[in-house]
Amino acid sequence: MDSILMKIHTSLLSKERETLSPSLLVVCGDHGMSETGSHGASSTEEVSTPLILISSAFERKPGDVRHPKHVQQTDLAATLAIGLGVPIPKDSVGSLLFPVIEGRPMREQLRFLHLNTLQLSKLLQENIPSYEKDPGFEQFKMAERLHGNWVKLHLEENHSDILLGLGTKVLRQYLGALKTLSLSLSTQVAHYDIYSMAVGTVVVLEVLILFLLSTPHVLCRKAELDVPLLSPVFSLLFYMIFLVLSAIHVLVCTSSESSCYLCSLPWLAAGGVMVLVSVLLCAILSALIRMVIDGTLLKKRAAHPGSGWSEVDLLLLLGTVGHVLSLGASSFVEEEHQTWYFLVNTLCLALSQETCRSYFVGDDCEPQHYFQVEEQGCSDILASTLLDSTSYNTPEPVRTGKGASLSEAQGSCKWWTVLASPWLVLICCRLLRSLNQTGVQGAHRPDLSHWLTSSDHKVQLSGLAALSLIVIFMLVQKGCSPVSKAALALGLLGVFCYRAAIGIVLFPWQSDNKVISKGIIEARFVYVFVLGILFTGTKDLLKAQVIATDYKTRTIGLWEIHSGLVLLAALLLRPHNLPVLAFSLLIQTVMTKFIWKPLRHDAAEITVMHYWFGQAFFYFQGNSNNIATIDISAGFVGLDTYLEVPATFLTVFGTYVGPVLWASHLMHFLSSEASNGPALSRACFCYALIGSVPVATYIVLVTSLRYHLFIWSVFSPKLLYEGMHLLITAALCAVFTATDQTRHTRA
Fold it and tell me: Whole-angstrom Cα distance, residue 141 to residue 132?
């Protein structure tokens, strides 16, 4: 490295002879490293790194050995700005490195120091109300007055020792002011509102604990979340907790010198927060007492003495817990897609093992599930995979006899399609991994999307996009009404026309040099069909809500809503990502017909599987935990000007296409089973639980890791993604609850 730096410096010196202006070579590192090789924590070795400035403008005498000084990383921005003659960044909290300018004349030194100190003082005024009492600001005002006296003497051409002594005093005053101001601002930037963060974390954890305590009650009894809130509100314990929390709030707000979000709220709003914390705490205590009195877990064991956890159940539980724990490591957050790819692939292998065990059982072994073996040919099976993706018949009651053996299935072709379905899903997932490289370690690697999006392969991209749209239509159209089917076909044709209008794909008769447009008319043409399909599905769903026993109408309505979302996703996704949508629908069809229905998985297992595949397809699409991977172009499809609300909705939907479509498919699948009873209620609870556990855990982790080296570059963007995902989960759960017809049926 020494020889490389020498070559670079020598080359710069040779160019300086031509340009007659000095160059600057900055050698630095982004972080240090501990003795064991770690570089993510906040130890001295990990946050310390060398900084070397090499330039012919610096005067160094032979034998002049200087001991290295400790400077802040933020000092580099101010130093480079002064050296390049550009304004110092407005929000920079660094101070000028004085050794860089100490060779300049006194007038220039004082001018540079004044610019830096003035910028820091203005930043201090914007962030601290009582800035006039700050010691650094007082030093700055004193330095300005002394600087003015020095300028007067300098203009009088007084070169006596008085001028030199006064200049040295001004330098020391400026350097002291810089150090104090920079320290004050750095402390302000690194200050966290611990009180507000703690209150928010407590509320999140209370809600999560209520979810966990209600899990046995919901999954084993009524499938309803019954939180006892009325009795705690009127209890003496509630008022005691409320008074204690209010006293703590008053004490913190009156003694805190720095700004606090909760303290800035009106007293009525802050009191509402204290009431919420008190009610949730009392509800947790009530739930615990109810569990002890009722003995829910003991009754469950007594009622189901032989029930146990299958391999798939253990995988779903351990995989979910393992993913939550992995969020505490920055590398796992950066490469989270690898975690979901691994979990989905492992799930396919576990399902393959389960299908084989269910078929190849011995005479003395009771199968865990029973396969429905239908007498139909191979061609019928393959056709139903593509066409009959929504014809879910109500399953027969589980037989107590033995499952279908291999010899019994020889007369039919379905046994091998069931056994091969997990491997087909595994192959699809492997192909999708090659489409988009994401994360930090592999984002630079070549992938199929880069090859398709290059200008030399526009024909191949057009063919792949057209094929994907045809597959999407074949997989979706069977469950739609004739009107929605025609609207879906025209909408998908409009999607291709829109991409052709903006010049991304080509029609067979179209030349590559065609004048492109914004495609606003074509996109709005598709929006009309999207709204039409969604309106038709919503109408059928509302009709089913009135007629409680009309399950067929509700199933068709939910599928048409799912179809409308698929059409909207096809419009917003870039053409090279249309295979992701097609494979998603294909996997949903295969899993429904050949895994979930034959193996008779319960609602909780199916919900977790849908959640896993939704997360995997979030990354198959090319997303990551980096804000830079958000495709904001989806927010401008069909818009000629920026409209905040539509652009926000389209961008969010285009980013979370995978989780939303898998959730809508889950809703349709469970609603299509007329005899499932409270399955949709259980699914809603499980979906809310599995979505809230990572968020609650991650909030605690981020709070504890707030001084981590990568808190702003890795953990904070992930927190934004988790927050938006939680909002989407809440919206989906609201739709689940509105769709659930259980209480209407009981009424």
Answer: 10
Helix, strand, coil percentages, rounded to 5, for the chain:
70, 0, 30
What are the DSSP calls for 110-156, one per residue?
HHHHHHHHHHHHHHHHHH-TTGGG-HHHHHHHHHHHHHHHHHHHHHT
DSSP 178-201: HHHHHHHHHHHHT---HHHHHHHH
> What pLDDT, on a 0 to 100 scale, did the predictor assign at position 402?
35
196 C-beta neighbours (distance < 10 Å), count? 17
**Confidence (pLDDT) at 550:** 63
How much of the chain exceeds pLDDT 90, in percent? 34
| pLDDT of 71 above 70 | yes
Task: Please tell me the predicted confidence (pLDDT) of residue 234.
Answer: 57
pLDDT category at 186 given cuts 50, 70, 90 is: confident
Residue with tokens 């009894």: 221
pLDDT recorded at residue 194: 87
What tokens does 562 get? 């799912």
Q: How many residues does the chain have?
A: 747
Can you tell me the distance from the alpha carbon of 231 to that of 650, in angstroms, rounded to the nearest whole number? 43
Q: Is the pLDDT of residue 381 over 70?
A: no
Higher pLDDT, 231 or 95: 95
In 3D space, the residue among 93, 89, 113, 76 whose CA is nearest the CA of residue 185 turns out to be 93
Q: Tokens 């660094």 correspond to what residue? A: 94
- Helix (H) / strand (E) containing 26: strand 25-28
Beta strands in 368-472 (DSSP E): none
Q: Which of 102, 40, 41, 96 is nearest to 72 (CA)?
A: 96
Please give the share of the chain, as a percent, with pLDDT higher than 70: 84
CB 658 within 8 A of CB 581: no
| Phi and psi, residue 51, nearest 5° | -140, 120
Query: What is the reported pLDDT for 321?
Result: 94
Q: How many Cα atoms occupy the beta-carbon half-sphere of 225 within 13 Å?
A: 22
Which amino acid is present at 315? L
Residues 614 and 661 sit within 8 Å (Cβ to Cβ): yes
Chain segment 284-324, per-residue pLDDT in tens: 888 787 777 766 444 544 444 445 678 888 999 999 999 99
Query: Quick one: which of 686, 688, 672, 687 has its CA closest to 741?
Result: 672
Of the candidates 45, 19, 18, 13, the residue with the CA atom closest to the CA atom of residue 31: 45
Q: Is the dihedral of CA 583, 679, 555, 533 positive or negative?
A: negative
**Cβ distance 51 to 62 under 8 Å?**
no
Which of the 8 DSSP states describes residue 595? Answer: I
Q: What distance in Å separates the CA atoms of residue 208 and residue 524, rounded to the nearest whole number?
A: 42
Asked if residues 40 and 46 have their Cβ atoms less than 8 Å apart, the reply is yes
What pLDDT sits at residue 220?
Answer: 63
Angle between helix 578-591 and helix 551-572 axes, rounded to 10 deg: 160
Most confident of 58-72, 543-557, 631-645: 631-645
Residue type, 511: S
**Residue burial 622-631, b: 16+ Cβ < 10 Å; e: rest:** bbbbbeebbb
Q: Return the residue matching tokens 């017909």.
A: 593
Contacts of 201 (CB under 8 A, 6+ apart): 699, 700, 703
What is the tens place of the pLDDT at every residue in 343-366?
999 999 999 998 888 777 643 444
Two tokens, residue 515 = 């004048």
Question: When comparing pLDDT for 235 and 687, which is higher?
Answer: 687
